[in-house]
Amino acid sequence: MSQIEQLKSIWTQLYKDKNLNNLDIFIDELNQFKKDNTIPILEEEWYKDVTVYSIYVDLFNKDFQGLEDKLDYLKELGVSCLWLLPILDSPGRDAGFDIKDYKKIRPDLLNYMPQNEVFDRFLNKAHNMGIKVLFDIAINHTSEEHPWFVEAKKSTDNPYRDYYIWNKDDKKYQDARIIFYGLEENNWKKEGDEYFFHRFFDFQPDLNFRNPEVLIEMSRNFLFWLKKGVDGFRADAIPYLWKEEGTDCENHPMTHAVVKFFRAVIDYVRPNTLLLAEACQKPKEVVKYFGDGDECHAGYHFPLMPQIFKAMQSESSLPITATLSKEITPEIPIQSQWFTFLRCHDELSLELVYVSEEDRKYIHESYCKQEQWDFRLGQGISSRLAELMDNDPNKIGLIYSVMLTLPGTPVVYYGDEFGKQNDIAFYEEQIKLTGKDDTRFLVRGRVDWDELENQLKNPNSLSSQVYNKLSTMLKIRSQHKAFGRGNIQWLEAGENQNNILMYLRTYGDDKLLIIHNLSKSKQQISISNSIEKELLSNNVQWDSQKNELAMDALSYIWFII
Length: 561
Known about the structure:
Elements: H1 3-15, H2 20-36, E1 52-55, H3 57-61, H4 64-69, H5 71-77, E2 81-84, E3 88-89, E4 101-105, H6 115-128, E5 132-138, H7 147-152, E6 166-167, E7 188-191, E8 194-197, H8 212-228, E9 232-236, H9 253-269, E10 274-277, H10 283-286, E11 298-300, H11 304-314, H12 318-323, E12 337-341, E13 348-349, H13 357-367, E14 374-375, E15 380-381, H14 385-388, H15 393-405, E16 409-413, H16 424-434, H17 449-457, H18 462-477, H19 482-485, E17 487-491, E18 500-507, E19 510-517, E20 523-526, E21 533-543, E22 548-560
Parallel strand pairs: 1-2, 1-16, 2-5, 5-9, 9-10, 10-11, 11-12, 12-16
Antiparallel strand pairs: 3-4, 6-8, 7-8, 13-15, 14-15, 17-18, 18-19, 19-22, 20-22, 21-22
Helix pairs in contact: 1-9, 8-9, 11-13, 15-18, 17-18
């Protein structure tokens, strides 16, 4: 079935025969778009071989000119793809996830210059350096300052009224959980004589995808940035698109239909443009957003993150191996991919959607070392990676070694490559700006480049030690497709040695043996595999004659076999 036929079929599923003329007009637009624009073709499954760097442009280095100036730094680190956290025009009350114009970049990120002089130049330079670029687009909701909502508020018969979800009271969709528990008390907010629905902050009204005009307008937003040459989109808050009374308004079948429509649009005009699902769900739900290879190309493996932290604290490989077992993490389509991470722009999430009560309690008690780090009344921990790891370079190196060698595409959060600390001053500044005590602002904050450059010159500094460990890993990882594409085979180090996490990664002739000592004591390991070459190690003594390892506490080693 062609993409055009898919669009027509999905439209019928969503809207029956409603507004068919509008669909025909949109299809004509797509055809004209293809005729008018020659966009470089992306290679298939490129997203399996990259290292992603997640970044707030303004907090990293002021604006796009500042980011452009640091592309050499990122290339040297080993980054091959940039995920730009919200850059679209926004009041910034939710770090930019509250969008007021989908076709404009925030003026301050452009230094108030035209987009085509600043963003286009940055994008071209990144591409010339072999760095892909994707950015966040919140498709579930807008800012209350978006022109659609400004118009929608004016009257009940305004044509934009139906772009959002209204009700005479706040009693509808009562089964929909409050996602920002502890920050919001209701999913409804009164505006005039009616209430509008919001799943996140009350200044972010949810869009109404029951209205076909909303689907078309959002598709046009994708087209605008495809023309620019953006390599992918992170679809924020994707599970909540379709609301249905009597359901929890998450993962609805019609939500999947909406996603299929976006994918068909994107594939028609620029195949292999990444569509990345931000779905904070169990893997068995996330894999549904891959569809049959006709929805998102990739999705975040949210449950893996807390289980890696549990494995570190409990000195046991079992939380990781259990999470990646077929019982918890189903098989995914061959062209699909998991994205993995240790920290991101949000908290170390402990949502009961994918973490048990017992694990939440254990991880929270183990890692929430300051009351200020608590997020959503125990549902998460707002802290930077370095502080979670007690600012210990060996712990940071070990946890990165685990994440970078497990299946999936790794995401590194800006600043974590040099042990950035929680930023209390920025947190307090943002409380005043937003009016919300959102502890996630602790894990954001600006990079002080003068201070960082001084720290990187000192080989004994935390920044230097963490940077050098991570950069070495990323460069080695980029040379072996087995990490991003290969199979994994769990190995047993010995009876009752669950504190050793050991596995093979294989892809064709590329075969790697990875071993981690998760314990806080020295371990002796005998290897049965024939070793060709040691790639990387930290505090491990390898007797190549006997094929035995003496592994210090919190150590790791990578081999080619």
